[in-house]
Amino acid sequence: MRDAYRKNYFDTNLLFIIFLFMIISCFSIYSSEKYLPDPPNHYAFKQVRWYFIGIVLSACVYVLDFEQIKKISLFSYVSGILILIALHFAPESIAHKIKGAKSWFSVPGFGSIQPSEFMKIFLIIFLAKIIVDHNKKYVDRSLKTDFRLIFKVFSATSIPLGLILLQPDAGTGMVIMVILIGMLFLSGIHWKIVGLLGVLGSSILGVLVLIYTKAPDLLLLFLDKYQLERIHSWLDPFQYKGDIGYQLSQSILAIGSGTMYGKGYYSGQVYIPEAHSDFIFTTIGEEYGFLGGSVVITLYFILIYRIVAIALLNKGSYENLIAAGVVSMLTFHIFENIGMVMGLVPITGIPLPLLSYGGSSILGTLIALSLILNISAKTKKYMFEQDSTRDL
């Protein structure tokens, strides 16, 4: 009975949501170009080009079997590490600094490419392999084997994390840590270890808050002066609106002035630096108000929901772990970006997935989502599956 009927579970709903984000992105970027001091820059048309390249790359990933992806995961991981090392030592003529960070390669005719965006994908598929191979080797789990797994994944993560923090890029570094935590959570480690890690993380955060309130200069031991000033401006943006808090204070004013229904398309009046990239949600909030912002957040909720639903339908642990990494990455990006433009969390320069302008972000996100669509296409749904047990 089990083979009487089956079909592929290709998630057309997820694909439709992705195309909706593409349309919203292009229109929003075109509207935000009015804020740029030297138009026309044609960022909207460049975004269409990046989407096209991303679709082609995603199609290449889509046709791969997950056994093939698993086999090339180590090669991809090592290649990403080598590229990050090359970026660190590359001359500024091909790896120029932007806002003090050396995070991009300059590619003639295309603009800038950020290797860390692809390193996140390489890390996800490699960590999934480490976890699956470990669980196959140690069928009888114990605290000792679980700590061994934690050591493996932390070791694999520490190398790209260290190279990214050297750029410095604290925002992407946080994304890497969130990916690690999300995948560890579903790796099967004992709940006591999960609780211990949670307490440890909360304690570290509490200590950092205490240091900031009592002796903030101590944070300069692992933060540069600019990053510490970012924290100051986040807590009181209007006090620093003439300097480092200008972008955030303008963003809060723009979103607040959008009220319930917004000012209308291309009718934004508050100047926002980088409105086409990291602050694209500000443009949406000003022009479409609370209603428009709520629609975008709802679409993101549906996007995450569909990825989780695909992961639950699939029985392969390797695929599930990849989905966990992608969900962790996208959820943190969405929460951090929307939170930072409203002043809820510090500004980190993390783009809004599928909406912010940026080739590397678009390519990395589309490749990640193609892995999810690949999972959905390889998943089979069987009719009368419960009845099949009665035939035995």
From TrEMBL:
* Transmembrane in keyword set: yes
Ranges that cross the membrane: 12-30, 50-67, 74-90, 110-128, 149-166, 172-189, 196-213, 288-309, 321-342, 354-373
Kindly state a single biological-process term from the GO annotations of this entry: cell division
Membrane topology type, per the record? Answer: Multi-pass membrane protein
Which GO molecular function annotations are given, in alphabetical order?
lipid-linked peptidoglycan transporter activity
Q: What broad class describes the main subcellular location of this protein? A: membrane
Q: Which GO terms describe its cellular component?
A: cell division site; plasma membrane
Would I find Membrane among this entry's keywords?
A: yes
Query: Keywords on this record?
Result: Cell shape, Membrane, Transmembrane, Transmembrane helix
Q: Which Pfam families match?
A: FTSW_RODA_SPOVE
Locations listed in the record: Membrane
InterPro entries hit by this protein: Cell_cycle_FtsW-rel_CS, FtsW/RodA
**What is the protein named?**
Rod shape-determining protein RodA
